Amino acid sequence: MAEKKKTLTEAQQKAAAFLTRAKPDFSGWRDARKAEDRLRAEEQAQEAVARGEVGYQMPDGSIYAGISPDTNKHMYVTAKSASLSMNFNAAAVYAEGLDAHGHQDWRLPSRGELDVLSFNRDNGALKETFNTAGMGHLGYFWSSSITTLIDKEGSAWARQFVDGVIMGGGYDKSYTFSVRCVRS
In what order do the strands lie in the sheet with 182-183? Predict the structure, then answer.
């Protein structure tokens, strides 16, 4: 009986050896293919930016929005606006702490950059990503530009995207408007 038990154990060992036999490892090939695809996507994005293809969605999810008139560098915008409207100070804190699309250098756009965003709002992946309903505060977007035309403590410029109008000399910072962050 002990011999029979030994035979079963040998059979089990042979079966286990057969089942655990080394299988081809394709993980390296898959990793190389993914890296190649990422590299190709990055090259295509760089070519689109070089062509000035405003509205091109980058591999990281951000959108190429044009040239910043302030930095004269390529400007990228988040794929969508902040989920909540907020006052100016909250918007500035939100932008400073934003970690989106693999980047942490987001900020509120300047008045000039907001002009570029408004002008390019219907291009490519930017199309229909800005609230242009013009209903109350949601159709307006904060800029980082401050003015003291209205009061000595300063107000901030904002833009209504329904028609691109910048009203007066700025808005009281307590108003709640939409927020869309940029980086360059």
Answer: 63-67, 74-77, 182-183
